[in-house]
Design goal:
By secondary structure, this protein is mainly α. The protein is built from 23 helices and no strands.
Length: about 450
């Protein structure tokens, strides 16, 4: 682990720190926590960034009931390794013993984010919320006008899934403290979750009126506005969120999706490109940018992005289907057929892959194979105009004119629009949906 702002310790100093740490650990295992603290302190004096010494001294302080010192040591340890789930978990336990339930819960949540498979982390977080509700309720009984107790009980109810109770507590907190933007935002999130979108919109707007520097509120209101079809207002909110917090991944995703939904494809590409500069291996962003390039007819760029996405998510049927379409548009029929082969290996009845492989095979003059693919489509969908028309073309190409005429006739009979929009040289742009940007 690197030591911020300092040179590498000489070997003798590092060895000295390790030696004292080992002695401290032995004493700790014997239950002699006071002596262990002394040895850990010597280790830290030799190496102030010795994670294990800081962590274990924090543990020993906790066992001695010296909780404030324990929190300080766990905090120092987390400066060395900010993602250590056990340092977060242990600090959470110590904070709980100090009665700081909100901070303890935040640490348990952070520990879960680092290690979502540890049952103890979930157990402690769940129990703390229940204990917190009981304590905040007692505080309210003693002092009915205790605004923060209502606010924190609402927060705890929210995490326990008691959403209506949380809304009621935020409402009471706002009656006592009407200018609390965070309470409005949190109540708005709950109203949105319960489907009361008008109330949610009102709450987010109140939060913004009270404090215009809340990017999360702008983003949340943007999502609601977009859902209600108020696209320009939604884009304005996403833009404000990004102005307040430039480069936020979720804000970029949301504005990109909004741009895409209203046909502003180049602006969506701009946001996705900015996102990919932050997260180069985001397969969903690559796939979505490829989709936009495809819709704009920029097939080379689309192929590039689909290929990158496939490296990250190999074997994805949707990506192979869409890349195959773009390759065919570029006249790279053999490569397109290879993609459709991969789709059909996984999904043998995929009609888009069958049809479009047939088109590519036709372009390669592999007419018999093309006929087989169009026939497979017709077996699944006997009213498929394009499959009849393209099979007719393939029959025509090999001189089977009677069959060609029969297929052309059937296609014309089925074509309600009065004109055939596809030919044997055209792939069906099946618009396989890209994943939503969340």
């Amino acid at each position: 682990q690197g030591r911020p702002g300092s040179a590498q310790l000489p070997g003798s100093q590092h060895g000295k720190a390790d030696w004292h740490h080992a002695r401290g650990y032995s004493l700790r295992k014997q239950g002699n926590f006071r002596a262990a603290v002394e040895e850990y302190t010597k280790a830290i004096d030799a190496d102030p960034w010795h994670f294990k010494a800081l962590f274990n001294r924090g543990f020993s302080y906790d066992k001695l009931g010296e909780h404030a010192q324990a929190v300080q040591d766990y905090t120092r340890a987390l400066r060395v390794d900010p993602t250590n789930s056990y340092a977060l978990y242990n600090r959470g336990i110590t904070l709980d013993q100090l009665g700081d339930y909100a901070a303890a819960t935040a640490d348990f949540t952070a520990a879960i984010e680092q290690d979502p498979t540890n049952a103890d982390f979930y157990h402690n977080r769940g129990w703390k919320f229940e204990a917190a509700v009981a304590d905040y309720t007692r505080a309210i009984e003693i002092q009915p006008g205790h605004c923060r107790a209502y606010y924190n009980r609402a927060f705890s109810h929210d995490h326990l899934g008691n959403y209506q109770a949380a809304i009621e507590d935020y409402t009471r907190a706002l009656q006592l403290e009407p200018n609390n933007p965070t309470a409005y935002h949190n109540r708005g999130s709950l109203n949105d979750r319960l489907g009361d979108h008008e109330a949610a919109l009102s709450d987010f707007s109140h939060a913004i009126e009270l404090d215009g520097r809340l990017p999360l509120s702008y983003n949340a209101r943007g999502l609601l506005l977009e859902r209600s079809g108020r696209i320009e207002e939604a884009i304005a909110d996403y833009t404000m969120a990004l102005k307040l917090e430039p480069g936020d991944e979720s804000f970029l995703r949301n504005r990109a999706l909004c741009y895409r939904g209203c046909g502003r494809f180049w602006e969506a590409i701009g946001d996705l490109t900015a996102l990919l500069q932050l997260v180069p291996n985001d397969a969903a962003a690559l796939s979505n940018r490829a989709y936009l390039y495809r819709k704009l007819g920029e097939y080379n760029q689309a192929v590039r992005d689909y290929t990158s996405a496939l490296r990250l998510s190999p074997g994805q049927v949707r990506l192979h289907n869409n890349r195959g379409y773009c390759l065919a548009k570029l006249g790279m029929y053999e490569e397109a057929v290879a993609d459709y082969d991969e789709v059909l290996r996984v999904s043998p009845t995929n009609m888009y892959a069958l049809h479009n492989r047939g088109v590519s095979l036709d372009q390669m003059r592999a007419y018999t194979a093309a006929i087989a693919d169009f026939s497979a489509v017709i077996r699944q969908d006997p009213h498929n105009v394009n499959a009849y028309f393209n099979r007719g073309n393939a029959y025509d190409s090999i001189g089977e004119y009677a069959r060609a005429v029969s297929d052309y006739t059937r296609a014309l009979d089925l074509d309600d629009s009065g004109k055939l929009t596809q030919s044997s040289s055209q792939q069906l742009d099946h618009c396989v949906g890209e994943p939503a940007l969340l």
